[in-house]
Design brief:
heterotetramer, C: alpha/beta, 2-enoyl-CoA Hydratase, Chain A, domain 1, 7-stranded mixed β-sheet, two-stranded parallel ribbon, 46% helix, D: alpha/beta, Glutaconate Coenzyme A-transferase, 2 domains, 9-stranded mixed β-sheet, 8-stranded mixed β-sheet, 15% strand, lyase activity (chain A), EC 4.1.1.88 (chain A), transferase (chain A), Biotin-independent malonate decarboxylase subunit beta (chain A), COA_CT_N (chain A)
Chain lengths: 309, 102, 238, 548
């Protein structure tokens, strides 16, 4: 019926992709439960950006703190993808690392990382790169202490560069269709290897290769969310409860999982070939599917769910 | 980078008890506004860091109109500008004031 | 120094370290026991297969249970930039390698990085930066991005960047700057025997991650440690 | 004895010369240069079909590859200067004189070439003007056109982008001219006959499909709160106020935002069925939610839009389609519809001066006019009344007998006070005047003249220029919505407040609109993907607009 869909548009349904880091945090956790660490009033800003004549942000593009989610205490960090592409600078990285280390003391039920990053902030590249290494070490320590670290990915900057590596270190990942996870970005590949290797303007190709649906189908992410904060909240709660341990058995399983992926899909040129081999009947229709239809496909794909992280 | 500071006297304090609020994001054409209830109730100060020099007159006019309209007494406002247009600045200031009144 | 010179210096009595397609795996005698060697040689890019080969070697070492040290020797390009690597989830492969090294460290294997050539970006993070101590040899050239590329992205003149690089180690490529930020713990003396220097590093290993403290002391990362500490303080106060 | 058939004989000679390179009417792409050299004569008037969207690009490449010794001094008469080849021919001397209408992407180069004297400019026209002159004093000797397919008799299927083709062919074929069509494929039977074969002399099988630019796709993801606020004011302060049912929209983000607010904000205001029902408009993807929500009764199109074909096929009650099911567009008819049958044109511009003259010209670009001056003008030949038209007429009538009053078309400029990089929209003097002086144009390239503009809408408010009674009031009304631009800051505050008291200027609060409510949550679609969902998967956006 013409007209009936207009009535169903809910203006309160906050899009994860569109929301700022602060909006995501506020809407993700139990109302009123968020306590920020090093909030904007403390003005812990980058000491380096002024050298480049660039504006700074009061929180250096990352919001961190503690909150309750479904009644259980968590620590969380949210990157602001619109400030400097959510990239890791010195303060930004130091805040994430500090939060992860604090988790060892505080022993929250979980740590949530709301990724939205292009990787390392070039103006502070060495500090950013080192902070990423520190964050990965800290995540491993937190996981080994039995605290799940769950990544949520669906922002406009995606999860690129070192952010992709940090994500790969987490216990669990939830991703939406708009979320992208990758190390080299499309533009970087195109600049270095040419448009024949990767046409970065072919956005359908970009999302097919790095987007949320592909990552979910191939087991690169553990949950697929509609683009709403509510969906991410639901996924986060569920993933916390089924986070794998960090131990030799887990990494042996991951080794086997990743080896099997190369053996099975190593000769595929395009994601649609991968999906076909995963048993998806009409792979060309996957990008156009809505969440429910896509979830039904995922349920039939064995590779999608595993504890091998 | 250019730094600007404007000081105004207001007729009334900004209602509400919220001690601080932040709105907006530092991005191209956008800005971040931090509001703190730290000044005497009839004072308002707005400090701006902007990468685009030479628009002091426009900032002065935008801030003056905002102060006249919102009467943000007691509030110190700090702005990290990413090259926002004046209408965006006005909007963020009003959004910030509304958050403080909550 | 070349990898061959390093291996000769480390293992004057011979070793079982092989290099294939730029991937280094194997072990050699060290002190009373052995030391495992993994790494990337010849400025090779690190892709999904390479990462998996190295993580296999590291996990094998952990499974062996000998708590022998693991040396991660690196002269690499950045991660391999290709559509195929990203299609297959390069981030998972690189993170897996890093996790394997971090697991080894937690399992009692001292992990030592040794950068003797180039390394950059994801390859650097997944290898040398995933060790407990990272040593470098003079002439090593770790970088995130070279200055001309930084100039292109930041739209700043190259001369200005070169000038800034002399006073601001936080963004400029090169070994000195990575030392200043604390990522590289120490620069070895190629004139002295390597086994002693590596042995000393192992003996002097400290718990926890000391890199931000080093960066603060050396001035290359002036605020990171204090920021992390302030977070911990506020978290405790709750 | 008077010669009555000279043109006809010349045409026969051209056709005979061309036949050498053809099998029947069919010419391979490899022989296109030979064909053109055979049928063209120095000094010919040539229409090389360059529409707003569809481009006869294969023939453009062939023309630019002709030998300037053989083919030179052509007089190009075409609506769009879009491809580099369109200007290359002036550099080599193949062409010398130009009469055109629109030059979007080539605007900077055309300015340089005009300045350098490489182009002898007749005039920059509106579409309807140029089409009109095809039948009076700019009739082409040769037309080089584009279509999707043709059969061996030359029957031509243009595809959904019919655009200018019927007009160009009408003027050429019926006045002793030669018509050459490039097609993507030669078929046994065309899906429908857009141009009968006896008007087509040669059919060139192109080496690749003709180029179409997705000019009318606006990504909702890029819409700002300011644009949404302006759209809310326009809907409440103009659409609802005048009861605008028949209209044309420009291609900017502001009007796209209006399209996306109809099913949400418009619905809330209870305006469905009362406004925005009949359109002269390209098939904007952002109109899909309004169509799907039952707001839109019908749409006639100038051209088409990339990715909209399947959607249009499934909505024949809304769009004009052929027996084959695909869209039939027609620029000349749709421009006429926009001029005479619409009660409002609403669109954006780059500069507005103190009187309300507007221009999209900057000092280094000659973008041309296209159709906006036709839509954006009050047609004095109109004689049918509507409520909207009559209300505007009453507001604008200052003197005279009410019984002899006529209506007014609403011509609305929808602008943000600052454009990209903080460039002010409101200026003391249009750049167009300086440009005209620099390159010696007799007529300054003004897009919409002040006396045609009825309203200006900015984020600061709506200025109703119909209600201004003298030049000073008009100036203050414009300054009064010009925000923090120098023009805006130069206002007389007392006069502006007086105008506001009279309703000449209306602020958001005067309209009952809270600026802080201007939120992206109001958009019926926030992304291209949302538009695809609204269309039930029928809209197929080009790859560059996708993020899935």
């Amino acid at each position: 019926m013409a007209g009936d869909r207009a009535a169903s548009i809910d203006p309160d349904a906050l899009s994860w992709y569109e929301a700022t880091a602060r909006q995501r945090v506020t809407a993700l956790v139990d109302p009123g439960s968020f306590r920020e660490f090093l909030g904007p009033t403390e003005r812990r800003m980058s000491p380096h950006l002024p050298l480049f004549d660039l504006p700074r942000a009061f929180d250096d593009g990352i919001v961190i703190g503690r909150a309750d989610i479904a009644g259980t205490p968590v620590l969380l960090a949210a990157q602001e993808g619109r400030f400097m592409g959510g990239a890791f600078g010195e303060v930004h990285g130091g805040k994430l690392v500090g939060l992860l280390r604090a988790a060892l003391d505080l022993k929250p039920r979980a740590v949530l990382i709301l990724f939205d990053t292009g990787g390392v902030r070039l103006q502070e590249a060495n500090a950013g790169e080192t902070a990423i290494a520190e964050a990965m070490r800290a995540i491993v320590d937190v996981r080994a202490a039995g605290i799940p670290v769950v990544g949520l990915i669906g922002g406009r900057a995606g999860c690129y560069g070192g952010g992709g590596l940090i994500a790969g270190t987490c216990s669990r990942l939830a991703v939406s269709e708009g979320g992208r996870i990758s190390v080299s970005g499309p533009e970087v590949i195109e600049t270095n290897k040419g448009a024949e290797e990767f046409d970065s303007r072919d956005r359908a190709l970009v999302w097919r290769t790095m987007g949320g649906k592909h990552r979910r189908l191939t087991g690169g992410a553990d949950a697929f969310c509609a683009d709403t904060v509510a969906a991410f909240r639901q996924a986060a709660v569920a993933l916390i409860d089924r986070a794998p341990a960090f131990d030799l058995a887990g990494l042996e399983a991951e080794q086997a999982r990743l080896a099997a992926r190369i053996a099975r899909f190593g000769d595929c040129r395009d994601a649609t070939e991968v999906w076909a081999r995963l048993g998806v009947n009409d792979p060309a229709t996957v990008p156009g599917m809505d969440t429910a239809a896509f979830e039904a496909i995922v349920a039939r794909v064995g590779e999608a769910d595993h504890d091998a992280r | 980078m250019e730094s600007l500071t404007f000081r105004h006297t207001t007729k009334t304090p900004l209602p509400g008890t919220q001690p601080s609020a932040v709105t907006g994001v530092v991005a191209s054409g956008n800005l971040e506004v931090l509001l703190e209830r730290v000044l005497p109730p009839d004072a308002c100060e707005v400090a701006i860091d902007t990468p685009i020099a030479g628009y002091g007159d426009v900032w002065a006019a935008v801030v003056a109109d905002f102060v006249a309209r919102a009467q943000p007494g007691g509030i110190r406002i700090s702005i990290n500008d990413g090259g926002a247009r004046p209408d965006t600045v006005s909007l963020r200031l009003l959004q910030g004031a509304r958050l403080m009144e909550a | 120094m070349t990898l061959a010179e390093i291996l000769l210096g480390l293992f004057p009595d011979g070793h079982a370290v092989a290099v294939r397609d730029g991937l280094v795996t194997g072990s050699g005698p060290f002190g009373d026991g052995r030391i495992h060697v993994v790494g990337v040689d010849g400025d090779a890019p690190l892709g999904i297969e390479g990462a998996l080969t190295l993580s296999r070697a590291v996990l094998d070492a952990v499974r062996a249970g000998d708590v022998a040290p693991i040396l991660v020797a690196v002269d690499s390009d950045s991660q391999r930039m290709s559509r195929r690597d990203e299609l297959l989830g390069l981030n998972e492969y690189l993170a897996h390698l890093a996790k394997a090294l971090l697991l080894a460290d937690r399992s009692g294997h001292p992990t030592i990085g040794l950068i003797y050539g180039h390394s950059a970006a994801g390859a650097f993070i997944a290898t040398a930066l995933a060790t407990r101590v990272l040593a470098a040899l003079p002439g090593a050239n770790p970088s995130v991005m070279d200055l001309p590329s930084v100039a292109r992205v930041t739209k700043l003149p190259l001369e200005k960047l070169q000038d800034m690089a002399t006073s601001t180690p936080v963004f400029a490529p090169g070994l000195d700057n990575m030392v200043a930020t604390g990522a590289v713990h120490v620069v070895l003396d190629p004139g002295k025997p390597l086994p002693g220097q590596i042995g000393a590093l192992i003996a002097g290993m400290q718990p926890g991650d000391v890199r931000d403290r080093l960066g603060e002391e050396r001035g290359g990362r002036p605020v990171a440690r204090a920021v992390a500490a302030a977070v911990a303080d506020q978290a405790r106060l709750g | 004895m008077t010669e009555w058939r000279g043109e006809r004989q010349a045409r026969d000679a051209r056709i005979a010369a061309g036949r050498i390179h053809a099998a029947g009417k069919i010419v391979p792409a490899t022989a296109a240069v030979d064909l053109l050299e055979a049928i063209l004569r120095p000094g010919d008037r040539v229409c090389l079909e360059g529409d707003n969207q569809k481009q006869a690009d294969c023939l453009a490449r062939a023309l630019s590859a002709c030998d300037p010794e053989k083919i030179h001094d052509l007089h190009m008469v075409q609506s769009g200067i879009v491809l580099p080849e369109h200007l290359d021919v002036f550099e080599t001397g193949i062409a010398r004189r130009l009469d055109y209408s629109y030059s979007g992407p080539q605007g900077a180069r055309i300015a340089r070439m005009l300045y350098g004297g490489q182009i002898e400019l007749g005039a920059v026209h509106t579409y309807l003007e140029l089409f009109a002159r095809y039948f009076v004093d700019l009739t082409p000797n040769v037309a080089l056109i584009a279509g999707v397919s043709a059969d061996r008799d030359g029957n031509l299927y243009t595809g959904p982008n019919t655009e200018d083709t019927p007009t160009v062919v009408e003027a050429t074929a019926f006045k002793n001219g030669v018509v050459v069509a490039q097609v993507n494929e030669i078929v046994e039977t065309v899906p429908r006959v857009d141009i009968p074969g006896d008007r087509i002399d040669f059919v060139v099988k192109a080496d690749r499909p003709f180029y179409v630019e997705p000019l009318f796709t606006r990504d909702p993801a890029a819409m700002t709160e300011t644009q949404i606020l302006i759209a809310m004011m326009a809907i409440k302060g103009i659409y609802a106020e005048y009861g605008i049912r028949r209209l044309n929209h420009g291609i900017g983000f502001g009007t796209a935002a209006i399209e996306l607010l109809l099913p949400t904000y418009g619905e809330k205001l209870g305006l469905k069925g009362k406004i925005a029902t009949h359109w002269a408009l390209n098939p904007h993807p952002t109109l899909i939610p309004a169509i799907e929500s039952g707001w839109v009764k019908q749409v006639h199109c100038f051209g088409s839009e990339v990715g909209m074909d399947r959607y249009i096929r499934e909505r024949p009650d809304i769009f004009f389609t052929g027996a084959d099911g695909s869209l039939r567009s027609n620029r000349a008819f749709c421009q006429t519809a926009g001029l005479y049958a619409c009660d409002m044109f609403i669109g954006a511009t780059l500069q507005i001066d103190l009187m309300g003259h507007s221009s999209t010209i900057t000092q280094s670009r000659v973008a041309g006019f296209g159709g906006a001056p036709n839509m954006g003008s009050d047609p004095h030949g109109r004689r049918h009344p509507t409520d909207a038209w009559m209300k505007a007429g009453r507001e604008g009538q200052i003197v005279g007998d009410p019984a002899l009053m006529r209506g007014r078309k609403l011509v609305v400029q929808l602008v943000e006070t600052f454009g990209d990089k903080l460039v002010p929209t409101f200026v003391e003097t249009l750049d167009a005047l300086e440009l005209a002086r620099k390159i010696g144009l007799e007529l300054a390239p003004v897009m919409i003249y002040a006396d045609d503009v009825t309203h200006i809408v900015t984020e600061e408010g709506i200025a109703n220029l119909l209600l201004c009674r003298d030049a000073d009031e008009r100036e203050q009304a414009i300054r009064g919505v010009a925000g923090y631009t120098e023009v805006g800051r130069g206002r007389d505050r007392a006069k502006v407040e007086a105008l506001r008291a009279r309703g000449v200027i209306r602020r958001p609060e005067d309209l009952g609109i809270e600026p802080l409510d201007a939120d992206r949550a109001l958009l019926a679609a926030k992304s291209i993907k949302d538009l695809v969902h609204w269309s039930g998967g029928l809209y197929e956006p080009p790859a560059r607009f996708r993020n899935w």
